[in-house]
Amino acid sequence: MEFGVKLRVWGDYACFTRPEMKAERVSYDVMTPSAARGILEAIHWKPAIRWVVDRIHVLRPVRFDNVRRNELGGKLSAAVVNQAIRADGKRVVTFIEDDRQQRAAMVLRDVEYVIEAHFEMTDRAGPGDNEGKHHEIFRRRAAKGQCYHRPYLGCREFAARFELLEDDPPPSALSGERDLGWMLHDIDYSGGMTPRFFRPVMRDGVFDCGQEVKP
User: Fold this and answer.
1) Does pTM surpass 0.85?
2) 175 phi and psi, to 5 degrees?
3) How far apart are alpha carbons 42 and 65 in whole angstroms?
4) 57-116, pLDDT tens digit by residue?
5) Which of 62, 189, 199, 206 is least enclosed, having the fewest CB within 10 Å?
6) DSSP-derived 3-state class of residue 59
7) What is the per-residue DSSP string for 73-99?
8) Which long-range contacts (CB under 8 A, 24 or more apart) does 20-28 make?
């Protein structure tokens, strides 16, 4: 028996960054499956389950906006952090004034989606794990607005609001067919962090995430 859920998410801004854009951030037209999975995991996730996003409903028109943001030019390397761990008491610091840079970004504005998903049990499930239990935990937490960390729409500064849907998703403002081009589907962590892509086609504001995926 498959336990599916429907979650409505929305926010003022979103940025589902295209990996092929190196210099400036440019968002995909719509939410990616990996971003949707991240929102579900923020509400409920355990090693015993793996979320699978089935469909994404795009409820509002796709609108872009240009913003400029201050960001750090680099980040602390894992080697520096590990060295500090081994040298007990050594501080790890980075000064934003020394590495600040202003970058432009093309982001989405005023977004709203419905995520349809289900989960599968993994080989890390124990005797106390079962589908009904995790399904009920997710539904209860989503209905109360509970989450392990604040879910976000592509970037952490773009917080996502959410609610559990018990009924069918509301109709989309979009109509017709639209090829969304090649899109990042997810990262294969068991295969050496290999990115996997697919080519979704949105019909009347809905696209299927279960299409053929290619590395």
Assistant:
1) yes
2) -140, 160
3) 26
4) 999 999 999 999 888 888 888 888 888 888 876 788 888 888 888 889 999 999 999 999
5) 189
6) coil
7) S----HHHHHHHHHSTT------GGGS
8) 24/103, 24/104, 24/105, 24/106, 25/103, 25/104, 25/105, 25/106, 25/107, 26/105, 26/106, 27/64, 27/105, 27/106, 27/107, 27/108, 27/154, 28/180, 28/183, 28/184
String of DSSP letters for 149-215: S--EESEEEEE-EEEE--SPPPPPS--SEEE--SEEEEEEGGGTSEEEEE--EEETTEEES-S--B-
Task: Dig out the tokens for 75 from the structure.
Answer: 């980040």
Say which amino acid occupies 169: P
How many CA atoms within 13 Å lie on the side-chain side of 149? 8
In the numeric block, which tokens belong to residue 55?
């469909």
Taking Cα atoms as reference points, which of 32, 107, 39, 111 lies closest to residue 69? 107
Q: What was the pLDDT predicted at 26?
A: 94
Task: List the beta bridge partners of residue 72.
Answer: 100
Q: Residue 84 carries which side chain, given as an amino acid letter?
A: A
Question: Judging by DSSP bridges, how do beta strands 177-179 and 183-188 pair with one another?
Answer: unpaired
Reduce the DSSP state of residue 141 to 3 states and report it: helix
CA distances to 3, 53, 155, 159, 167 from 120, rounded to whole Å, are 9, 11, 27, 27, 22
C-alpha 20/C-alpha 108 separation (Å) is: 17
Q: Which two tokens stand for residue 29?
A: 């037209």
